[in-house]
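About this split. The held-out portion is used to measure sequence recovery: a designer receives only the C-alpha cells and must propose an amino acid at every position. Recovery is the fraction of positions where the proposal matches the reference. Here is one held-out target exactly as it appears in the evaluation file.
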C-alpha cells in the first residue's frame, strides 16, 4: 500500500478508478475526458469522421460493458486488468448490409416518397435501431498500463484496446 501512496494525493484516483473513469468516458463518447485520461492518441478519430459516424459509433459504444480486475502498482507505474465486452462492430455493419439487401423491396416501398434529406435521416435511424438491437458480444481481456504524472494516473498504453472496444478479438 505504501507504493500506491508514493503517487497519490488525498482525493486523487487510484489506477483502477482512472481506468473506470476512462471506460465510462469512452462509453459516453466523451472524447475530452478520454483524451485527458489516455496518453496515446486513440484511433477513435478514424471512426468519428462525420456526424453520421459519430451517431453510429455512439450507438455501439453506449453498449460497452467492462469489469475492472486486479490492479498492480509499483511506484509510479501501474497495470490494471480489464474485461471488455463489446459488439463485433465490423460484423454488425455487415449484418446490417445483409439485412437491407434481404429487405430491399420493403425499404424501397417505405422510403420511395421521401426527399433525400428525409431519406438519409430515416436510414440513419433504422441503422442505429439495428445496432442497438444487435445482441452478439465478444469479451476480450486487456491490461492497461498507467503512469503517474503530476500526482495523477494516466493510461499510457493498452495493447489490443481498439480491437477490444470494437469486439474484434476472439480471445
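Reference sequence for scoring:
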Amino acid at each position: 500500500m505504501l507504493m500506491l501512496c508514493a503517487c497519490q494525493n488525498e482525493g486523487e484516483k487510484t489506477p483502477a478508478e482512472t481506468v473506470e473513469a476512462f471506460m465510462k468516458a469512452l462509453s459516453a463518447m466523451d472524447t475530452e475526458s478520454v483524451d485527458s485520461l489516455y496518453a496515446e492518441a486513440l484511433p477513435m478519430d478514424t471512426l468519428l469522421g462525420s456526424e453520421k459516424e459519430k451517431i453510429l459509433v455512439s450507438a455501439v459504444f453506449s453498449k460497452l460493458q467492462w469489469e475492472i480486475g486486479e490492479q498492480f502498482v509499483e511506484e509510479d507505474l501501474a497495470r490494471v486488468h480489464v474485461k471488455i465486452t463489446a459488439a463485433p462492430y465490423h460484423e454488425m455493419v455487415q449484418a446490417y448490409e445483409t439485412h437491407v439487401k434481404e429487405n430491399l423491396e420493403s425499404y424501397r416501398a417505405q422510403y420511395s416518397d421521401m426527399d433525400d434529406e428525409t431519406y438519409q435521416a430515416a436510414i440513419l435511424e433504422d441503422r442505429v435501431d439495428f445496432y442497438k438491437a444487435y445482441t452478439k458480444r465478444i469479451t476480450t481481456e486487456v491490461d492497461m498500463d498507467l503512469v503517474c504524472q503530476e500526482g495523477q494516473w494516466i493510461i499510457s498504453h493498452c495493447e489490443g484496446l481498439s480491437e477490444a472496444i470494437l469486439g474484434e478479438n476472439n480471445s
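Annotator remark: Confidence is low (pLDDT under 50) at residues 1-5.
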